[in-house]
Every structure is written in C-alpha cells, then in structure tokens.
Amino acid sequence: MQIGFNLPVSGPMAAPDIMANIAQLGEALGFDYLTLTDHVALPDTTAPGYPYSTTGEFYTPDPGHRVEQLTTTAWIAAKTSKIRLVLAVMVVPHRPAVVTSKMLATIDVLSGGRLTVGIGAGWLQVELEAVGTTPFAERGAVTDEYMDAMRTIWTNQKPVFHGKYTHIDGLLTDPKPVQKPYPPIWVGGESGPSMRRAARIGDAWYPIGSNNAHLLDTLPRLTAGIAKMRALTAAAGRDPAAMGIVYRVKRHGMPAPAATDGCRKLFTGTVADTIDDIARVRDIGVTAIDFDFEGRDAVKSAADMKKFHMEVLSRI
Questions:
Q1: In angstroms, rounded to a whole number, what is the distance separating the alpha carbons of residues 148 and 152?
Q2: Is the peptide bond prior to 181 cis by the omega test (within 30 degrees of 0)?
Q3: Is the previous residue joined to 255 through a cis bond, with omega within 30 degrees of 0?
Q4: What is the DSSP letter of 237?
Q5: Are 107 and 174 in contact (CB under 8 A)?
Q6: CA-based nearest residue to 100, from 136, 135, 147, 68
Q7: What is the pLDDT of residues 224-283, one digit of tens each?
Q8: Domains by residue range for the chain, with CATH
Q9: In 65, 146, 150, 181, which residue has its Cα 20 to 30 A from 256's Cα atom?
C-alpha cells in the first residue's frame, strides 16, 4: 500500500519556501506521493457549500489564496527527485483538452515520469462558469470527452479527434508522456457518474470518505462502495482486480462522534485506531491512502508529518 500526503497549495502555507520544504520533507520521510488540489476562482468561502465537510466549510484556512495546480506541480517536480506528484484532483473542465494534454505531458517529461493525473468533473458552479468555456450542466460530458481526447493525443503521433468540444486533426503534439501509454489516471468522485467514469478509464478510483451526499466514512460503507466499483468495472468490460482504490482522508487521529450508520468513522480516534484502519482498508482492497497535514503553521505541519512517520508509517 502506498501512503501519500496533501501538499499545502492554499492559505498561509502556500508560499514557495514552505511548499518546497514540505515536499522535500515528505520525500525524505518516505511518503510515496504528494497531492495538489485544484481551484482557480472561489466565492466567499465563509458561506457553507463545500461538500466534503460536516459544516460545509473548507478545511483549509484562507482557501481563496491558492497557487495554480499545474504550474505548481511542475515547480514542485523541480524541487524533488523521486516522490510521485498526484493531481488531487484536476478539475477537467477548467482547461481545454489540447492545451491540458500538452501541459500534463510536459510535467511528466520534466519530472522523469512521476505524474499521476487525478481527475474530477468539478462541483462549484460559479467557479466553472467563470473559468470554463463549456456549460456547468455539461461538465460530466465535457470531462469524458476531454479525457478521451487527451488519451488520443498522448498515444498517437498525429492524433485525430473530433467531438462536441474538442477538435484536432493530425497536428503534432510532442512530447509524449514518459509513462506509457500515459500517466496513471485516478478518477475522483463518489457519485454514480463519477464511479462509471472510473470504471471506464481509471487506473484507480479516488473517493473522499466525507462527501455528505455519498458517505464512505466507515468500513461497511467503504466496503460496499468498493464492491459497487468492482461491479461497474466488470460491466465496463475491464478486470475489476486491476482497478486500484485510493482513499483520501481529510482529517485523521481526532475524536469524533459515530457515523450515522452507528460505526466509528474511519481514521478517527487514537494512533492505534489509525494503524488498525490502514490494515482494515488494505484488506478490503485499498491500494493507497493520503493524509492531510495542512493548517496555518508550517512548523506544526512539519512536526505532525514527522510524528505521523514515527508513530504510524514506521509501524505498518
């Protein structure tokens, strides 16, 4: 099982020296990958609306102060040497397919093949309407077509693709990604359309357990979600056993009330509970987990990462 962590790209820790230091610390501590999130333009984030917390508020302080995801990924690649770089997740409708395929291939080349492309269709209407060139209501179809176009571009010398939103006809688009046929694709989202997208094109399904509309916050709920994912993968004509399962943990190691199904929420409680949960989710098929050490204080975040390494990583 791989273990990753979320790199702070927003709030008071989104400063060049802090981001570089945290990335290098994670690499030195032996984390397998780091993740970078994607927002471009946010509304007043004091108003509830975030789907992945109980209150509807963003976990990270000052989320509107945020560096751009793909630019930062390329920069972090230059500051590290071996840790994998995971987009968690790239909102696909934010950027046109042809230019995005070029940017991602370039990052993969410059990083020596360390990129993992986590993707999602997006959920924030005002942001997508400000940033994107396609309708919010069509974001799922846009995501599917853009990913098909990008995979065509990455795997053909003179790609030809004609869809509703993307057209390219034999133009040269080198360089191709270092990883073949292209960087791994982790498909985020917990809804039916997101899961079907993962089943069709994903190397892994990448849910967050705390989505209030599709909770996967307890072992029984996550087990059922994975079983559904396996069935959808088989229905898509692909090998269910080959589908990775990556679980994104927004908060860990803190007391919390029981979930609405009466079970303890995954990764709440003690250090021993966290170690036990890692073993339990591994047993049901989870192949990677990433944890969040963000906050307002870079010194505290670094200390928390070192403590996690000593108390958890060194014991699993």
A1: 6
A2: yes
A3: no
A4: T
A5: no
A6: 147
A7: 999 999 999 999 999 999 999 999 998 888 899 999 999 999 999 999 999 999 999 999
A8: 2-315 (3.20.20.30)
A9: 65
